[in-house]
Amino acid sequence: MASNGIKDRVAIVGMGCTPFGEHWDKGADDLLVDAATEAWKSAGVGPDDIDAYWLGTMGSGVSGLMLSEALKLAYKPVTRLENMCATGSEAMRNAAYAVASGAYDLVMAIGVEKLKDSGFSGLTGSRPPSDGTDPTMTAPATFSLLAPAYAKKYGVDEATLKQVLARIAWKNHRNGAKNPKAQFRKEVAMDKICASPSVAGMLGIFDCSGVSDGSAAAILCRAEDAHKYTKHPIYLKALSFAAGPAEGYFSQDYDFTSFPEVVASSRDAYKQAGVTDPRAQISMAEVHDCFTPTELVLMEDMGFSPRGQAWKDEQEGRFDLEGAQPVNPDGGLKSFGHPIGASGLRMMYEMWLQLRGEAGARQIKSPKLGLTHNLGGAPGRCVSFVSIVGSELG
Amino acid sequence: MGAGKGERTVASYDEDAVSMGVEAARDAVRGASDIDTLIFATTSPPYAEKLNAATLAAALDLPRTLRSLELGASTRMGLGALLAGADAASAGGRALVVAADVVIGAPGGGRESGSGDGAVAFVTGPDSEAIAKVVGRASATAEILDVWRLPTDPFAKQWEERFGAETLGPIVLDTATRALKSAGIGPADLATVILDGTNARAMAVIPEALRLKPEQLADPLLGAVGRTGSAHAGLLLARALDRARAGDRILVVAGGDGCDAIVLEVTAKVEAARPVHSVDRWLGSKRNDLPYNTYLKWRGILPFEPPRRPEPERPAAPPMQRAGHWKHAFFGSRCEACGTGHLPPQRVCVKCAAVDQMREERFSEASCKVATYTLDHLAYTLQPPVVAAIVDFEGGGRLSCELTDVDPKSVAIGNELEMTFRRLYTGQGVHNYFWKARPKR
Lengths: 394, 441
What we know:
The complex is a heterodimer.
Chain A: E1 10-17, H1 28-43, E2 52-56, H2 65-71, E3 78-81, H3 87-100, E4 106-113, H4 139-144, H5 146-154, H6 158-176, H7 190-194, E5 198-200, E6 203-204, E7 214-222, E8 234-243, H8 260-273, H9 278-281, E9 284-286, H10 292-301, H11 310-315, H12 332-336, H13 340-355, E10 369-378, E11 381-390
Parallel strand pairs in A: 2-3, 2-4, 9-10
Antiparallel strand pairs in A: 1-7, 1-8, 4-7, 5-6, 8-11, 10-11
Chain B: H1 17-29, E1 37-41, H2 52-59, E2 67-71, H3 77-90, E3 95-101, H4 110-114, E4 118-124, E5 132-141, E6 147-148, E7 157-158, H5 161-183, E8 192-197, H6 200-203, H7 205-209, H8 232-243, E9 249-255, E10 258-266, H9 279-284, H10 292-298, H11 317-322, H12 324-327, E11 331-335, E12 341-342, E13 358-362, E14 368-376, E15 386-393, E16 398-403, E17 416-427, E18 430-439
Parallel strand pairs in B: 1-2, 1-3, 8-9
Antiparallel strand pairs in B: 3-4, 5-10, 6-7, 9-10, 11-12, 11-13, 14-15, 14-17, 15-16, 17-18
Helix pairs in contact in B: 1-2
């Protein structure tokens, strides 16, 4: 995979993030105003200082007008984009490349989603007119396909795997409990997680990310300009995005224990950032734990655990807040919530806080490199984004 | 179910007269060529206006030059369709005759407990190929108020039975007698007599009047299947043919608003043409665990709390048209450069990226197995949970699809499956037919 990367050329100088949750009293426009205002304030700028905007939303609105109208932007370029659950990350990637190109000096990437207004359980969304032959699997069902395949391939009995998955949920709820902006701020006992009603396959309610409303925003500029806006910028070391050929849905070679798209995008990101040993060099990660088996498999795909070993690493606490390589310190999609278009930027918001030493009760001790990972689609057919960020140049 | 002690067949929540018709016809057309006419009889058409036979033809991949006929309004049209098929054969053609019905009765009534759902299919052609030749026939049409149903009514009504016996009975007897006369044989020459009609008492006139022996009468399967509407006379005939020997003569009589009768003589070809699934084999693959309230829910009789999910959207006409060969006949594609199978058909190979080097391949008869699976408790369905699986086909090719006729607890990686044509759902008044996998039967 070829990419030149923009290591240390672009910095994040301001961020904002609304609390995620059930915002019955706020529309998508309100959430955008809240996140943008916080980001402007954080960088010490106003709307007119931003040269261009990238707005990510999967289904809460269309066109750049969704943002410009809410923020009353004065004739700025606003790009609205969508890449399923990786929409927020995709907004940031495009904004960063626009800065790196020299086209703009200061830009904002902002993501938003309003999911709770639909009245339905789980994710919904209208599809284009179709022939009606697409399989009727909900999101938890598609990700639950990983569990029996993983159990069979690595000889993990289902009861043990269920415990491992529950522990992932337990960990992320435990982290989220320390986060004032998270949707769910309570620790949840292992047996309660295991006993939760079944949603799909081995997955219970507690194996699924929170359906929520929220928005998050980042302000980016060239690295050399970063100190104009903040004492503590964070620098983009790598941005990598991969859309797969949907091989898993056509080829019998794919065995539903991996995301090849994640393997490709993480390897590309490591190359851009000069990371040779991700298990040792990545201090912390925010990964796309949409469902608990996803996080399990991601650990192997990103090289945090050897193949077939992530279930042991999870059990041994390697990815706990106090572990060797904390994963989802902010609670992840699991307890922070998952308003689709905002999630990728929410992950970066946690990096922003952690790398600046502002993460409070869940602060990780002197992190060097942070990774965000955000995917959309389903096992065998997805898009994957990986970023690597740090607080120091070089 | 209902008041009686017996069993009745029940079409699953994703079956209807069309999908069951396809199931029956797949077996019938195996090895048959040059079918130029399709005749479909049902009193429970999924569409009141739109040719249901066209869906059958598409699923069976019958030629575009096909002539289709659709018969309804009386269960007698099941046998009427077979007679029409015989006419088509006499004219030098080959016809596929399909009769199918989902029969619903008012809850608790005799029509509910005494009916069954079923489908049957025959191919008619020249005598030189026949497993059974038509050697005699007769018909009658009579205006009698026996069974009736308004187009808007869910359940049929019936006049009290004795009236039918006295008015329809003599007509039925006369028709059967004329059929025998046209065949030039007597009642004693018959190996099997099949009697089916809207009015059981009217049909009961025949055995006594013709002095038939009990062993000549085919089991009407009322306790094991129930009367399957338009399909029933044909179903009993198919079962008789499953057991028939060369030289046997079979009389089939179907009564209702008149009568049709046909005399068949079984040929020596019957042995070589036994279907893959005999009637008794189908009956033996039954499941017997359907709660009555679930049945009522499937038939739309019992309102129920819908899942908190958006209702399925109707499929759209142009994409259905473009995907017709895939959607209905289950044609995928295979890359001519590297041999990789694709479902649905693709233009670009997932393996070698060759562009437009695909040939069509039909996967409907291929064996397949579970690669991985899930039980989806959230998805919208009349029968939760949706059992969904990644299915790998023998010889290559993979599909993500629903499983049906399956015990969710029994699903495991490696399970053997076969494909079946079903109605996935009905969205905004449009039926969405497609294929599902089911445990091999």
